Amino acid sequence: MKFYICKEKEEPKEGRIAIIGAGPAGLSAAGYLACKGYPVEVFDKMPEGGGMIAFGIPESRIPIKTVREGVKDLERLGVKFNFRTKVVYDNLRDLGDEFVERVVYLEELLEDFDAILIATGAWRPKKLKIEGIELEGVWDALTLLYKIKLARIGYIPWSAVPEMRGKEVVIVGAGYTAVDVALEAKSLGAKKMTMVYRRGLENSYAKDEIKRLINEGVNFIEFATPARILGEDEVKEVEFVKTKLVNGKVIPTDETFKLSADIFVYAIGQFPTPPIKALICANEKILRDAGIFLAGDVLAPRNIGAAIREGTRAAKEIEEWLISKEERPRVLSIRSFLLSQRSEIWQNC
């Protein structure tokens, strides 16, 4: 996988750049800036590069070998990688933190680098808030896919992954993440898979892939949303409420039904995970003036191609900023900076 194609590397330039996050947006930015001759360091909490495409997308869709080749290309271009390193300000725990061996504070990077690109992605799954969510056998899609991928590429034993062979799997959602769960469940021997979506199939941006899954035996139920998960210690059934669309809005009806389930997976999205939450709400001009840039899923969910393009776009903005800047503001205290710009920063939240 090529994150950036550098035809000829330019002469070295002044201006050190730190990139937080080694997903597709961060890697494409690193490639562009290194090609332009800038010294670039990438910081990521995982043991190797790729972000979600390495640790969240099924091996059958994107083999880890191709991701590793792309990262090696960037290393040959001069990009320095700091893996198993988490950049922090707010001390929140997310998926992947178990690999962290070193912690770097955001203020340190602000002091040591001329520009910072935050491309930390969205590693915190949204939680479904219904009765029974704590039962054994209930998984958010991101955590499940993450564990399966870790097992496939040798980071954890398969005993840490739920057994799916011969099981009934119910999946809530109709995006690409839900599709990936269905693909993995199928490959791991699930007896029956049912996808449930609160809207109609034609409303799903992954409808073509879902139609292929339907042709391969996956059940698909549209216009329904989960109401509660039933079981003693582990999931046995899931009760759903039928829905309808009224002026584009999903409205629950009085009609209900139940599906038996050994494993229940919900794919309802993720939250962005920047080093400090307020940064994703900030006025971009204020951040840019301080040499702080954002790209990728940390702003909003994107597909891989869009993330790569946005990483390159952000890298070009950094290059332009480095060339045109007169004197970079010294932003050594994130807390002081955010407080001083409070009204402007929170206007977008």
TrEMBL record:
Q: Name one GO molecular function term.
A: oxidoreductase activity
Where the record annotates domain FAD/NAD(P)-binding, the positions are 16-311
Which Pfam family, an example, fits this chain? Pyr_redox_2
Which top-level group of life is the source organism from? Archaea
What InterPro entries does this protein map onto? FAD/NAD-bd_sf, FAD/NAD-binding_dom
Q: What is this protein called?
A: Putative glutamate synthase subunit beta
